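Hi R.,

As promised, here are both runs. First protein below:
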Amino acid sequence: MSVPAFRIAVLISGSGSNLQAIMDATATGSISGEIEQVLSNRPDAGGLERARQAGIPAEVIDHRHFDTREAYDEALGQRLTALRPDLIVLAGFMRILTDPLVRTFAGQMINIHPSLLPAYRGLHTHARAIAAGERQHGCSVHYVIPELDAGPVIAQAPVTIKPDDTPASLQTRVQAMEHTLYPQVVSWIADGRVSLHDDQVWMDGQPISRPPRITAETEH
């Protein structure tokens, strides 16, 4: 009897570059799972076409058609419940989710954030890191909890800040590392190596004291 494929749902709002990285990893077998559905809150999200070209179902639940954030999240939650994914991947999904939705999928929803959390939660992380004189920046994948960008961190990828960096140049290098880090974390979860227990990330049967770091940064 064959084992059912690990089912992944990806939520996007934009171009879908992290979606593409995860799609590529599933296509090559680096991720032992399948993207069952791509969902977007924006009908003009470029990632929708990426998914459709790859033969992955892509759907829009337009937030502009709902009067409140709660009503939107209820509709999104109903759709996700119907899909029954093993993992929900937020890949540039530019909405703050309501507490009921997050709690419904606790331990099944992950996000990538452009900083070395807990530093620089929220927006404009690259500019803030440069302004603060940081020497190192990067990205983090974390489980989603009701508090914004505060969930348990699974893994990180550091990026060195150069003396002549601008927010744009730093963003480019951080995004390149996102495309390595995110598929790696999804692969670990799909393989059963990473899970969440009592708000603690476990890896290979042990709670982790510090998130592992991927350091294969390519700088140009």
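And here is the second one, sequence first, then its structure tokens:
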Amino acid sequence: MASIAERTFIAIKPDGVQRGLVGEIIKRFEQKGFKLVAMKLIHASEDLLREHYIDLKDRPFYEGLVQYMHSGPVVAMVSASK
């Protein structure tokens, strides 16, 4: 019987990428026991971000959040644990 792995989405936001903190942030997650199984540098479209944050659409900060996340590249990662 195969074991079921829990997956976690992790994103390094545009300011972390711009400040050159990607390596340090990944290191800290790995030290906490997260095992990265996928990673991709993306510039997310506004449509993707609106879909991702759909549960926040009625909040006053929603538009600013979408614009901020669209302002630069994001490192999107998936980690797995058993």
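A quick note on the second one: The first helix runs from residue 14 to 18. Let me know what you think.

Best,
J.
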